[in-house]
Sequence to fold (427 residues):
Amino acid sequence: MTLVLGCIADDYTGASDLANTLTRQGLRTIQTIGLPAPGLDLPEVDAMVIAFKSRSIPAEEAIALSRLADRWLRTAGASHVLFKICSTFDSTDAGNIGPVTDALRADCGASIVAVTPAFPGTNRTVFQGNLYVGSVPLNESPLKDHPLNPMRDANLVRVLARQSSSTVGLVPIATVEAGVEALREALAALAAEGYGDAIIDAIFDRHLETIGEAVLDNPLSTGASGLGLGLARALVARGRVTAASASGDQRAAPPGHAAIIAGSCSRATLEQIAVAEHAMPVRHLSPERLVTEGATEAVEALAWAKSRLALGPVLIASSAMPEDVTALQAKHGGAAAGHAIEQALATIAEGLVHAGVGRLVVAGGETSGAVVDRLGLAAFLLGPEIAPGVPVLRTIGDRDLVLALKSGNFGGPDFFARALTAMEQPL
Ligand code: ADP
Fold:
């Protein structure tokens, strides 16, 4: 396998977002949770996103993890590595964007690193080095009150300088508008003056395309999914994306049954469950019993599912209306109830897989995390999007599963039917 793009992401959901963005641009992409396990048998892909939870851990730990990932990606052929950060530049003055970028720059010998969290598709734009979230500067957005990384300064040149050992310059929008050569020259000029990082303005996708083309031949960049989009488009334009079209190793969907587990109580998921009631057997779990005797409730739900799976997909849900959720939380405590229900649903997911389920849809972000952890899944190949932000996933490793992991509010009313159909396609 020879990667054309390697990515190191500082959190899991950001990694998925990036992997999905790259896939949509035509790159065959794998996402791993943490460093790939030794001996992991990877299919031919264009890009790989190694996901950590390194955004808010001590800088030395984030550096150590990121350096290992960087080495892994370059050994697998990646000549360019994107350090994927949040599009709202979530970090503190202690790091970790600056320290990790410094360490990776030193390792790869880059003279200057282009840095931009711009992602116009989600309303993150950078102008004169200032990050805007929609129509307001970062420090006036809800991010100013973030519990871990309160962002009180919108000027990214200053923000990055406070956490970086290098001098931080700016490439303004006028230079980006002037095109790839102008941007390359500006970066070279800053590098010659001793700058180690350059915040680059970007307002529209075309700016990210210019940046992607200008920095692709550099070994390193730091940015959000928007920069991933720019790099991906540059790779496609250069004809360097081959794995997707030459994916002779596409495999038929794994054999076995299909099932859906819902732990989200969002309005969208409640509606999706109501629609599914017309198409498949639905088991509504008792939230009270899930909290007080989760193991028993799980055993009974599994017995119910096993007697029906051969006939078609089944849906098992803990989801409840807001007033019922509030009442349960008041009785048992919100965190305790949530955790207990997540664990019971993970037990059910595990049982379903043992019972021969090969295609599994999970509704709910935290619920999905609990299921992925319980099943010990560490790497996914991304497939087509079922709904915006929700791709089909195929596990890589010992356990062959096709998954759809959906945050509560994602997807239209017919999401479950769409997911089950999309998950039958070869990937
Ligand atoms: P979403 O993506 O919609 O936020 P999550 O899975 O992230 O969904 O979060 C839903 C949380 O609610 C989980 O912790 C889950 O265990 C919990 N939960 C599920 N069903 C119920 C219920 N009936 N009452 C209270 N909490 C519930």
